[in-house]
Recover the amino acids of this structure.
């Protein structure tokens, strides 16, 4: 009796086409789930057909699985070729595809419901869409491969985050080591000063003790010698000898300078050390955001200066493609001032902007696009406006001060605007500014270095420490009291003048 292909590709247990076929050590194949269920019911690991034991785990029968897949595919194709796909409305063979409704139709459907629609042969539509799907799958497979191999963008971002963490941690440790070195040096110098004072004051006491020892030793020795004198001489000098022998240490007058000046060493100790630390801990009013720097601009480790580079750095993920670096913080209110050292650079731009989200690379840096800045190009200085207003400046400023302030406009109804001004920080001379900057968004400082190797640097701000003094009522209101007293004196003088006139 001939055995059909379907019989060969069917599981002996469930008699259906193999699903996930596995091969036992006896060379018989079964569905993985079928043989597991059989072993569970029979409580033994024996083959369903030959009853031989199978101590090893069954392995996948890939050849048999592929044969089953090919068999199903051929069956489906044969069904399609035999006209198995028929229109459920008209009962005719489906041979067309409507591109408008994206639906498989028969010829009668095309004559009625889809008469004015563009159609194509079903096999052609099927081939085109399969090719498109395969192309899409190739892209998905490449993406999957890049994720598995660690070459995808997200994998690179993850690696970059790790390198950023390591670099930042290294910098933090270096900065704290500088602070530790300062504190250790300051601690050592203060302990040395304390020891010096101890040495000085103990030395003074020890010298005084040595003087007393010498003086007392002389008296004791003299008294002992006079004891050996003859009786007449001893008795004649007895009173003077006794008085000299009655020596006691004189009471020394004590004062605070006798002891260690503890208040000098401990008074406001932490505050004094902190005040000294200002020299090694500068405060920068603007901290730059390194992620906004393009690959050809280098940002210093302390995030306070930028330099245009000869070659591009390895910065795979800049947040924008404009050639500028922004401050890390934007200002929505308040008065803010910062100084940018431009040195002898002949080409630079600086100012404030609304940020760079969604702004194209080629847009002009003008107020209309959210930029308010000052630019130097050789000997020419211009405000960054649509007309690029040229400015006349005496000398070339080495440090430019940027100030963000507010001003009111009294024209009918009061309006409040922001104001951006630029000045020469060294000579304190005004250069130019913008007076009608909107309030709607935060303003971020920006700098654009254009001279290679010449950095633009944020200047540290001067930090002034003040100690609040608690004044008495009289001290706080001295001027007011003086005015009141004067007013009272004037009234008294007026009243006295009136009484004199009345008495006459």
């Amino acid at each position: 009796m001939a055995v059909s292909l379907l019989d060969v590709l069917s599981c002996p247990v469930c008699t259906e086409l193999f699903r996930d076929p596995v091969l036992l050590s006896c060379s018989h194949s079964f569905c993985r789930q079928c043989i597991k269920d059989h072993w569970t019911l029979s409580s033994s690991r024996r083959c369903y057909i030959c009853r031989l034991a199978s101590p090893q785990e069954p392995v996948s029968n890939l050849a048999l699985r592929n044969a089953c897949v090919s068999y199903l595919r051929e069956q489906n194709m044969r069904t399609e070729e035999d006209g198995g796909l028929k229109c459920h409305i008209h009962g005719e063979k489906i041979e067309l595809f409507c591109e408008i409704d994206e639906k498989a139709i028969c010829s009668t459907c095309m004559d009625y419901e889809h008469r004015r629609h563009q159609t194509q042969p079903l096999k052609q539509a099927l081939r085109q869409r399969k090719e498109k799907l395969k192309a899409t799958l190739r892209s998905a497979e490449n993406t999957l491969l890049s994720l598995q191999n660690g070459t995808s963008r997200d994998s690179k971002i993850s690696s970059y985050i790790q390198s950023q963490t390591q670099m930042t941690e290294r910098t933090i440790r270096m900065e704290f080591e500088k602070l530790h070195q300062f504190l250790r040096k300051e601690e050592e110098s203060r302990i040395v000063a304390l020891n010096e004072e101890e040495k000085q004051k103990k030395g003074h006491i020890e010298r005084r003790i040595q003087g007393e020892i010498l003086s007392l030793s002389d008296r004791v020795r003299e008294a002992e010698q006079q004891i050996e004198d003859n009786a007449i001489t001893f008795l004649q000098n007895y009173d003077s000898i006794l008085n000299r022998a009655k020596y006691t240490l004189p009471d020394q007058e004590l004062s605070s300078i006798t002891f260690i000046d503890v208040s000098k060493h401990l008074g406001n100790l932490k505050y004094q050390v902190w005040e000294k630390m200002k020299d090694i801990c500068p405060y920068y009013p603007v901290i730059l955001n390194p992620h906004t720097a393009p690959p050809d601009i280098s940002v210093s480790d302390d995030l306070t200066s930028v330099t245009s580079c000869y070659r591009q750095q390895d910065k795979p993920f800049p947040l924008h493609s404009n050639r500028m670096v922004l401050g890390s913080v934007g200002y929505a209110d308040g008065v803010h001032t910062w100084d940018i050292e431009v040195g002898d650079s002949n080409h630079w731009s600086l100012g404030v902007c609304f940020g760079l989200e969604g702004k194209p690379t080629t847009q002009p840096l003008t107020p209309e696009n959210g930029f308010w800045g000052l630019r130097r190009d050789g000997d020419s200085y211009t405000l960054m406006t649509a007309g690029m207003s040229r400015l006349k400046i005496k000398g070339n400023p080495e440090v430019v001060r940027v100030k963000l302030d507010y001003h009111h406009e009294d024209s009918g109804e009061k309006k409040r605007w922001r104001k951006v001004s630029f000045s020469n920080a060294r000579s304190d001379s005004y250069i130019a500014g913008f007076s009608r900057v909107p309030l709607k968004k935060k303003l971020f400082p920006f700098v654009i270095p254009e001279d290679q190797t010449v950095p633009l640097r944020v200047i540290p701000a001067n930090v002034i420490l003040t100690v609040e003094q608690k004044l008495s009522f009289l001290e706080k209101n001295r001027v007011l009291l003086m005015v009141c007293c004067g007013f009272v004196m004037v009234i008294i003088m007026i009243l006295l003048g009136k009484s004199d006139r009345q008495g006459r």
Q: What stands out?
A: The chain has four domains: 5-120, 155-277, 290-458, 473-503.
